[in-house]
Design a protein that fits this description.
Layout lengths: L3 E6 L3 E3 L9 E8 L5 E4 L10 E6 H4 L4 E4 L8 E5 L5 E11 L1 E4 L4 E5 L3 E10 L7 E10 L11 E2 L10 E2 L18 E4 L5 E3 L4 E7 L5 E2 L10 E5 L5 E5 L13 E2 L4 E4 L4 E2 L4 E9 L4 E3 L3 E3 L5 E2 L4 E2 L2
Parallel strand pairs: 13-26, 18-23
Antiparallel strand pairs: 1-2, 1-12, 3-4, 3-5, 6-7, 7-11, 8-10, 8-12, 9-11, 14-28, 15-24, 16-22, 17-19, 17-21, 19-20, 20-24, 24-25, 26-27
C-alpha cells in the first residue's frame, strides 16, 4: 500500500484517491472508551456505551485515514483521523494561500498514533479585513515515520510446516519485486489453504479478505487479500495473496509468532497459489520494503534466497 494524497479546497471538496474495486461491503464501528480514546474496528465493540456503526464497501475500506475540519471555513480546526491499529505519518502542505497561512507552518509531517484523532493545525487570515482563500493537500503513509527498527531480527517461517517448500522469487526479483514496496519481498509457493502464521509478535494493523480472483492482469494489482502486522520496533510484516475470507484474526489483536493469521491463496496479481511476504517501514514518509533475515528449518539464520527452505 502506498502513500495516499487528498487535496481539499476551502469547503472540503477533495480529489485524487484511487481505491480497489469489489462488490462486497463490511460494517465498521467507532466508540470511545473510559479513557476518552477513540477506537475504530470492523468488530462490534464489547461495551454497553453508545457507539457508531456504518457500512463500507471493500473498495472504500482502504485509504480510511483522513483530515477533517472540526471548526468552520473561517476558523478551521483540522484533525488527522487514523483508524488503523498502528501508527501512520500524515503530511500537510498548502497548495493555495491568498492572504492565508497555516498554524503551524506547513509543509509539516506528523506522527499519528494508532486509532487516534490528532490535531494538526489551523488556517487563518493574515489580514482580517481582506478577503482570503486557501487550499491544502495531505498525504499519509502507514507506519511510524523513520523507525529505529531491528534490521537483524530473525523472522520465523511465515507458514505452518507442510513438507518441502521453496522460495520462488527473492529480493529484487525481476517478475514483480522491483518497486520500493516489494523490492525485498519473497514469494513462497504453497498449496491453497496452507496455514499462514505470524513471523513475529505484533498487532494486526489492517487486513483484507474479500477478494476472490487472481491473475496477471493489471486489474488484479489492487485485489489481493492480505494481513499487515505492526511490530514493536516500528517495522511491519505484510502477508499477501491470501485465500478468500480466511483471515482468523481481527484488527487491533495482539498476535504471537507462530499464531495462525489466515490461509494461503491465489488472489491479486499472482501466477498461482503462494505467499508474498515482506518487511516494510515508513522511511521519510514513504512506504518501502527492507532486507530481513529468516530462520531456516535447520536453525541457520540468513538472508532468504531463492531455493529450497531446508
Amino acid at each position: 500500500m502506498q502513500a495516499f494524497f487528498l487535496t481539499l479546497i476551502l469547503t472540503g471538496l477533495f480529489t485524487g484517491l484511487l481505491t480497489p474495486t469489489s462488490v462486497c461491503a463490511k460494517k465498521y464501528y467507532k466508540h470511545v472508551d473510559d479513557n476518552g480514546i477513540v477506537h475504530y474496528s470492523d468488530k462490534k465493540p464489547d461495551t454497553d456505551k453508545d457507539f457508531e456503526s456504518w457500512q463500507v464497501r471493500v473498495e472504500d475500506s482502504r485509504g480510511q485515514a483522513t483530515v477533517v475540519n472540526r471548526g468552520t471555513d473561517r476558523m478551521p480546526l483540522l484533525y488527522a483521523i487514523n483508524p488503523y491499529h498502528g501508527p501512520i505519518s500524515v503530511r500537510l502542505a498548502m497548495t493555495k494561500a491568498v492572504n492565508a497561512r497555516s498554524d503551524p507552518p506547513w509543509p509539516k509531517t506528523y506522527d499519528v498514533p494508532a486509532t487516534t484523532d490528532y490535531y494538526v493545525g489551523t488556517i487563518e487570515a493574515i489580514r482580517e479585513n481582506k478577503s482570503w482563500s486557501y487550499a491544502y493537500q495531505f498525504s499519509y503513509v502507514l507506519g511510524q515515520n523513520n523507525p529505529d527498527y531491528d534490521a537483524d531480527y530473525a523472522y520465523r517461517l511465515p507458514y505452518r510446516a507442510v513438507g518441502d517448500a521453496f522460495i520462488s522469487q527473492g529480493f529484487s526479483g525481476t517478475f514483480s519485486h522491483f518497486d520500493e514496496q516489494n523490492k525485498y519481498a519473497i514469494d513462497i509457493p504453497l498449496a491453497e489453504g496452507t496455514d499462514i502464521v505470524a513471523a513475529r509478535d505484533g498487532v494486526v494493523m489492517d487486513y483484507a479478505e474479500d477478494f476472490i480472483k487472481g491473475g496477471t492482469e493489471a486489474k488484479n494489482l489492487f485485489r489481493n487479500n492480505y494481513v499487515r502486522i505492526a511490530h514493536d520496533d516500528g517495522s511491519m510484516g505484510l502477508y499477501a495473496h491470501l485465500k478468500l475470507e480466511s483471515v482468523v484474526v481481527g484488527n487491533g489483536q495482539r498476535v504471537k509468532a507462530g499464531q495462525k493469521l489466515a490461509e494461503s491463496g491465489d488472489t491479486g496479481f499472482s501466477t498461482g497459489p503462494h505467499l508474498h511476504f515482506a518487511i516494510q517501514i515508513n522511511q521519510n514518509h514513504k512506504l518501502i520494503a527492507v532486507p530481513f533475515k529468516l530462520k531456516y528449518p535447520n536453525g541457520e539464520i540468513k538472508q532468504p534466497m531463492p531455493g529450497w527452505l531446508d
